[in-house]
Amino acid sequence: MYRNWFSGKFDRVLEIFSKMQDAGVQPDKAACNILVEKCCNAGETQAMMKILHYMKEKFLVLRYSIYKEALHTLKIAGVSDRLLRDVNRHLSSEKFNHDQIDRSDGTTESTCLTLDDKMILYLLNKQSLLAVDYLLDSLMSKRLKLDSGIVSTIVEVNCNCGRVNGAFLAFEFSVKLGITIERIMYLALVGELIRTSSLSRVVDIVEAVVGAGLSLGSELTALLIHRLGCTREPTSAEKLFSILPDQQKSTAVYTALINSYFTCGNAEKGLEVFETMRKQGINVALSTYCVLLNGLERNGLFDKVQSYRKEKMRFKSEICSREMSLEERVCDLLFAGNLVG
C-alpha cells in the first residue's frame, strides 16, 4: 500500500502524510521508513526533517539500512544529523556489532534491543510513565540492564513531562547498573532539579558525570555550588567541589564555593578557600575580591576588610593594563551582582 505513495511529486507524498495525521490515521514505522528512504533517494533533507520530527514524537525508529542512508544524505547536503541520531539512539550509540544485524530486513531491533528495551519503548510510546517506573524498579532489583539510549530516552521523556522523580529513578538505574547516559540528559536532569528546588540530589549527578569522564561546564558547576550555598547547604557545596578533578576547578567554581561559605556564616572557611585558590595558581577575578569583601563585611570581620580592599584596588589597576582571561570574564558575569565599589 505504501509504495503507491511514491507516484507523483514528493510534495504530494508530504501532503498525504499530513492528511493522514489530520484524519487521525497515524503513519506507522513501516510508512516512515519508506518515506525517509524516498527522501534519501530524492535528496529531500527538509522533508526528511519533518518526518523525523514526527518519528521522535511517536518514538518510531528507522531500520539500520535506512538510518545509514539518511546519515549519508544529510552529510552530503551539509545538514546536521542531530535529529536523526536523537530519533535512533539505539543505532547512533554504535555499540552494537554490525555483523549481528539481521540482513533480511536491515533492522537492529530484534538483535540489539532486548525484550525489556522493547517493552520500555512501547510504554513510552503509550505515555505509560508510571508503568515505566515499575518496570525500571523491577529491572534494577534484578540488575538487568537496558540499552543506554533507552535509559537516556526515559530521562528525556520524564523531564519533558516535569516528572523529576521518574527522571531521577532512571538516573539511579543507570548508576546502579553502570550505564553512562548522554551528557545532555545529565544536563536536563540538573535543570529539573534546579526547577523543583531539589538541589540535594545534584551531587549524585555531578559524581556520575565526573565518573563518566564528562563535565557539566564551569558555568553550570559554579551556579550549582552557588545555589547550594544560597539554600544553606554548605556541606553539599563542599562535597560537589571535592568531586571535581583539578582541571574543572575554575575561577568561577572557587569563587562560588567562597561565596557559599560566607553565605552560610563560615567566614573562616571562605577565607581559607580564597587563600588555597591563590596558592594553587588559580586566576583571581575582580568579582572574587568583591565576593570576598562582601562576605567579610556581612560576617563582621572588618579588621580583615581593609587589607583585602587594598589588594582589590591594586588588582583593579593591574587588569586595566592587561587582557582578562576567559575564566575571569565568566566569573565576573556569574557574580556581576557583587561588582560594586
From TrEMBL:
Q: Which InterPro entries match?
A: Mito_RNA_Proc_CCM1, PPR_rpt, TPR-like_helical_dom_sf
Keyword Repeat in record:
yes
Gene3D superfamilies xref list: Tetratricopeptide repeat domain
**Entry GO MF terms:** mRNA binding
By its UniProt entry, which Pfam families does this protein fall under? PPR_2, PPR_3
Q: Where are the PPR repeats?
A: 250-284
PROSITE patterns per UniProt: PPR
**Is the keyword Repeat in the record?**
yes
What keywords were assigned to this record?
Repeat
Coiled-coil ranges from the UniProt annotation:
none
Q: Which PANTHER family match?
A: OS04G0488500 PROTEIN, PENTATRICOPEPTIDE REPEAT-CONTAINING PROTEIN PET309, MITOCHONDRIAL
Family affiliation? Belongs to the PPR family. P subfamily.
Q: What is this protein called?
A: Pentatricopeptide repeat-containing protein At2g01390-like
Instruction: Name its species.
Output: Nicotiana tabacum (Common tobacco)
- Recall the taxonomic lineage recorded for the source organism: Eukaryota, Viridiplantae, Streptophyta, Embryophyta, Tracheophyta
Per UniProt, what is the name of the gene that codes for the protein in this document? Answer: LOC107832206
